């Protein structure tokens, strides 16, 4: 297996390659599709052209006549082994291959196994499937109407398309506060279905070694250990025990939540390898990735916000309908069906709030992944930041001044929100003021007024968001019952070099850099002398993976605590070597010295050698430690973003002229890593605000199923991001760090949406659903008589 070398990329990509500087890491550059094994077979998938149809017959005779085709696998074949259905993370069930009917366009119907990728594709193209179309439901509101076709007929006694109802907060107090309010605003908000569209699509190579009775799977997963456990739970009855399964997740070309779930292609590849004893590769193409993999968002929200006439916010009420497609396969390990949506009170000191969410089945792909956000936090932030702007306009208050008036104050932390979250720390006014000073807020407002007099359209939008990351405390999070902790194992070798292994899995966040820096800071071992490993279940300690900005809050904390355990043992060895009491030693990075006699010291390298050659009598040899960290609370990074847009009256095109982002993620381990994550996140936040959407017509045909019509921003559309920071440490985290990987993706969309609405507010415009396309804007301008 030869590694492929390629330049690392920005955004969520690897750090820059700089061999001379130990702060920067070298990417190994080995991806799943690079893995080549002797005798490897290939899978291609036959997909449904219908959104809802009964399968009458599958004719594989023409496919079997294609040279190189070995088999056509159907749901009937998997049913013999009870592998045609699999569990989801949300305790629902999802098809691997259908036996009776398909539930969405592009659903897997059959798989072709062949000796080459091209033969598999040729075979899949000639598999003939006869369908009997069934009624299609793509609107979740219609799906819940009496008489709507029941989609999940596989569920015994299921008589409707309702999945679950969940609510949180004090309904009576909220209803009372809204009824008594001086001013209320109410708005329907739709946050459409989008896709992560990572550079690398999903795929795997499954290899079942019949001699060793062991399954090895190289796969594009963000959570190798969790996947191994899921495989064991799904296939244990056919002999795949967990200790005989090895998951290897090499370099991943972007994850963003889309590589957390188990996809049917993985299960089919494993089944095919177990049956043939040959390695089996499945790599999806771009259209399969967009059309059939887990989606994000698709939330239909009705929100009401209440305030006094002097501009003090009092209550928030939200009702939401969540479209989960044909299965609730949300990559959401929390104990809450709607994830962390109830962080929707945001940065504001609201006294009452109530949230209710209903899930619905429709004829769309299953899922509900956290597209670079912590389980519906993006939806929550978009809602409260749009509603805050609406209320400010209703009260004729400047949106910045209105936010300043209602922010939770620094002295109120730790702060218990109306919906039960305990915010760890924050200084929201400080972040907003810094953003306003940086962008020249007062001057921009004057410029806007002058342009309006000339008929020009300019808008200024603010988003002052609070994130919630670090899944998670086991009291709130688990995956199929497995509690959400994470792990670090550090081994210091006799020569003072170290190997550190983690249960997380980087997709380009720079774990190799950040984790090494944490250990270097704690032990004084140069970062260049620390090898960071993750992604291999045979070597890494059990962990729950990387998503929801949990790497530094959980695994980073585990690394710090494990390093401190090592330092405690090192102190005992140093005392033995220096023939003094431990109480007489003082630590500085890299060595212990005798108090008052700094010339008497032992470096961490000398101590490491002694740990294997001259440790105190009765002490175990070696210098290593493991920590499984279950955080006491989530962390709450925050920020204030200000966007400035100009609108072309002739085309409706929105130009993002300036964007200032001030983030606070607590103590920062590596500023360059944070800067890269913020830059990439801002571009990914701009994407759903202005470009990205997957929609369906009434027949369930996908619109946005290729890069011809699913628009992702390029360097041409991306402005020069202006970034800054404030630092408010988390009081409960061992490093005071909070996490930042998703903040920009969460905070950017409402800032941009607020800016566009602000540009049109004097025309009577109060709300526009994202993505705010030129067509939407131009139609509004034409309606208002402003189009050129």
* Sheet/helix structural class: alpha+beta
Low-confidence segments, given as residue ranges, are 1-27
What is the share of helical residues? 25-40%
Our measurement of the CA-to-CA distance between the termini, rounded to an integer number of angstroms, reads 60 Å
Shape: globular
DSSP strand (E) fraction? 15-25%
In a few lines, what is going on in this structure?
With 788 residues, the chain is an alpha+beta fold. Strand 27 and strand 28 form a beta hairpin. The termini are far apart.
Q: Features of this protein?
A:
five-stranded mixed β-sheet, seven-stranded mixed β-sheet, single chain, 18 helices, alpha+beta, 24% strand, disordered N terminus, 788 residues
Describe this protein's structure.
This protein has 788 residues and is of the alpha+beta class. It is built from 18 helices and 34 strands. The protein has a seven-stranded mixed beta sheet, sandwiched between helices. It has a five-stranded mixed beta sheet with strand order 9-17-16-15-10, with helices on both faces. A four-stranded mixed beta sheet has the order 20-30-31-34, sandwiched between helices. Helix 9 (377-394) runs parallel beside helix 17 (743-760), helix 13 (511-523) packs parallel to helix 14 and helix 14 (551-578) packs across helix 15. It is globular, with a radius of gyration of 27 Å. Mean pLDDT is 94; it is low at 1-27.
């Amino acid at each position: 297996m030869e590694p492929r070398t390629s330049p690392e990329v920005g955004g969520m990509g690897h750090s820059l390659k700089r061999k001379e500087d130990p702060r920067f890491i070298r990417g190994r550059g080995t991806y799943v599709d690079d893995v080549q094994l002797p005798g490897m077979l290939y899978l291609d998938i036959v997909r449904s052209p219908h959104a809802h149809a009964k399968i009458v017959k599958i004719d594989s005779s023409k496919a079997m006549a294609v040279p190189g085709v070995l088999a056509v696998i159907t749901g009937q074949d998997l049913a013999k082994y009870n592998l045609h259905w699999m569990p989801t993370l949300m305790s629902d069930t999802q098809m691997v291959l259908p036996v009776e009917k398909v539930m969405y366009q592009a659903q897997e119907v059959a798989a072709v196994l062949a000796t080459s990728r091209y033969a598999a594709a040729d075979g899949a193209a000639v598999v003939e499937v006869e369908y009997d179309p069934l009624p299609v439901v793509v609107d979740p509101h219609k799906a819940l109407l009496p008489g709507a076709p029941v989609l999940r007929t596989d569920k015994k006694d299921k008589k409707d398309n309702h999945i679950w109802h969940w609510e949180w907060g004090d309904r009576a107090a909220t209803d009372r506060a809204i009824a008594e309010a001086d001013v209320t605003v109410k708005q329907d908000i739709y946050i459409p279905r989008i896709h992560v569209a990572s550079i690398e699509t999903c795929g795997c190579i499954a290899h079942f070694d019949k001699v060793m009775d062991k399954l090895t799977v190289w796969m594009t997963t963000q959570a190798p250990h969790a996947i191994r456990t899921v495989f064991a739970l799904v296939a244990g009855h056919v002999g795949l025990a967990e200790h005989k399964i090895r998951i290897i997740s090499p370099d991943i070309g972007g994850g963003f939540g889309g590589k957390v779930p188990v996809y049917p292609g993985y299960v089919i590849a494993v089944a095919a390898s177990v049956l043939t004893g040959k390695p089996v590769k499945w790599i999806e193409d771009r259209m399969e990735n967009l059309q059939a993999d887990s989606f994000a968002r698709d939330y239909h929200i009705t929100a009401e916000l209440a305030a006094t006439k002097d501009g003090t916010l009092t209550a928030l009420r939200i009702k939401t309908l969540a479209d989960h497609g044909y299965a609730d396969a949300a990559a959401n390990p929390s104990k809450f069906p709607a994830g962390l949506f109830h962080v929707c009170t945001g940065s504001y000191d609201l006294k009452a709030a109530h949230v209710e969410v209903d899930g619905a089945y429709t004829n769309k792909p299953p899922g509900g992944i956290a597209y670079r956000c912590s389980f519906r936090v993006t939806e929550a932030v978009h809602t409260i930041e749009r509603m805050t702007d609406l209320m400010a306009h209703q009260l004729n208050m400047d949106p910045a001044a209105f936010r300043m008036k209602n922010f939770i104050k620094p002295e109120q932390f730790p702060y218990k929100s109306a919906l039960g979250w305990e915010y760890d720390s924050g200084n929201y006014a400080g972040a907003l003021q810094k953003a306003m000073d940086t962008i020249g807020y007062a001057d921009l407002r004057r410029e806007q007024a002058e342009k309006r007099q000339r008929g020009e359209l300019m808008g200024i939008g603010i988003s002052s968001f609070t994130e919630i990351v670090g899944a998670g405390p086991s009291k709130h999070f688990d995956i199929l019952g497995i509690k959400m902790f994470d792990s670090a194992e550090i081994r210091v070798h006799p020569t003072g070099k170290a190997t550190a292994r983690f249960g997380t899995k980087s997709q380009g966040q720079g774990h190799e850099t950040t984790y090494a820096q944490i250990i270097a800071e704690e032990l004084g071992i140069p970062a260049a002398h620390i090898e960071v490993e993750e992604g291999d279940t045979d070597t890494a300690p059990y962990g729950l993976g990387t998503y929801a900005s949990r790497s530094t809050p959980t695994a980073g904390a585990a690394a710090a605590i494990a390093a401190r355990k090592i330092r405690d043992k090192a102190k005992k060895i140093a005392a033995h070597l220096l023939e003094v009491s431990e109480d007489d030693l003082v630590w500085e990075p890299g060595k212990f010295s005798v108090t008052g006699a700094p010339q008497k010291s032992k470096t961490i390298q000398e101590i490491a050698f002694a740990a294997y050659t001259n440790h105190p009598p009765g002490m175990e040899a070696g210098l290593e430690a493991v920590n499984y960290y279950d955080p006491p609370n989530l962390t709450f990074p925050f920020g204030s973003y200000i966007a400035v847009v100009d609108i072309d009256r002739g085309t409706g095109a929105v130009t993002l002229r300036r964007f200032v982002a001030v983030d606070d993620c607590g103590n920062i381990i590596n500023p360059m890593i944070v800067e890269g994550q913020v830059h990439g996140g801002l571009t990914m936040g701009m994407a759903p605000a202005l470009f990205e959407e997957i929609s369906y017509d009434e027949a369930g045909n996908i619109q946005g199923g290729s890069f011809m019509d699913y628009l992702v921003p390029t360097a041409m559309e991306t402005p020069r991001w202006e970034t800054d920071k404030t630092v408010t440490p988390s009081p409960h985290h061992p490093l005071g760090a909070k996490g930042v990987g998703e903040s920009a993706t969460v905070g950017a969309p409402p800032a941009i949406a607020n800016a566009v609405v602000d540009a049109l507010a004097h025309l009577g415009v109060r709300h526009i659903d994202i993505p705010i396309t030129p067509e939407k804007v131009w139609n509004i301008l034409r309606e208002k008589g402003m189009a050129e």
